[in-house]
Write a structure and sequence with these properties.
With 227 residues, the chain is of the alpha/beta class. The protein has eight helices and twelve strands. It has helices at residues 14-25, 37-47, 63-70, 87-95, 108-125, 156-167, 175-183, 191-205, and strands at residues 6-10, 30-34, 51-54, 78-82, 100-103, 130-133, 136-139, 144-147, 150-152, 172-174, 215-218, 222-225.
Length: 227
């Protein structure tokens, strides 16, 4: 039987785990299961799954906290599968490192499609380069940033924003282009939203956030990475 790798399911609902097991194994993947956050973290470290499906409503911990702990070392895709469907919950999960978010009840075909996309993107990312700008190093493959050899902790959105700008060093990117690329068409008018994220990123990246050397503002237009 085909084995494309092991997917870890962290969910306390037995019925959901059974449905996922039937659906996912039929597509050629192996399944490992955990019903608590603690058990899920232990299994993730032991079996090194190619993808994790994580519920937010776990009995021993909030799923976001488990996600944060996973993202301290686990670089492969994490898909959130939860009954929580508020925009705030979705954004919080994505900002803390989730690759995708699907709400319950869900369509199995859609879940499988999102699993395939996440795994494909993860495999493609292994060929991404390491970008160096002075004392700043951006590893596009591992999604890590170091400044003077010290790890800088960025949210998933902050890293995506930094990577987009760094890949386009010296090029002015408009507010609308950045918003579309990072958040989607629904956010292309939310320039204040972008401004807040850029301020957060400057605090973490720049030596003097008030006088940025890398994350430069092009007044009324957008932003430019580098001099």
């Amino acid at each position: 039987m085909t084995n494309f790798g092991t997917i870890l399911i962290i969910d306390d609902e037995v019925q959901i785990r059974r449905l996922l097991e039937i659906t996912i194994t039929a597509s050629g993947y192996k399944i490992s299961e955990a019903s608590t956050g603690k058990e899920g973290l232990a299994l993730a470290a032991t079996i090194q799954p190619i993808l994790i499906i994580l519920d937010l409503g776990l009995p021993d911990a909030d799923g976001i906290e488990i996600l944060k702990r996973l993202r301290e070392w686990y670089q492969k895709p994490v898909i959130i599968l939860s009954v929580r469907n508020s925009e705030e919950d979705i954004i919080r999960a994505l900002d803390n490192g989730a690759n995708d978010y699907l709400t319950k009840p869900f369509r199995t075909g859609e879940l499988l499609a999102r699993i395939r996309v996440a795994i494909r993107q993860s495999m493609n990312n292994t060929d991404e380069p390491v970008l160096t700008f002075g004392n700043l190093t951006i590893d596009l493959s591992s999604h890590t940033v170091h400044k003077e050899n010290e790890l800088i902790k960025l949210t998933s959105t902050e890293f995506s924003l930094l990577a987009l700008l760094a890949r386009n060093e010296g090029r002015v990117l408009t507010h609308q282009y950045i918003l579309k690329e990072i958040w989607g068409f629904g956010y292309i008018e939310q320039t204040q939203y972008l401004r807040v994220f850029m301020a957060q990123l400057r605090k973490k990246i720049e030596n003097d956030p008030a006088k940025p050397m890398l994350l430069n503002t092009e007044s009324g237009i957008g932003y430019r990475f580098g001099s």
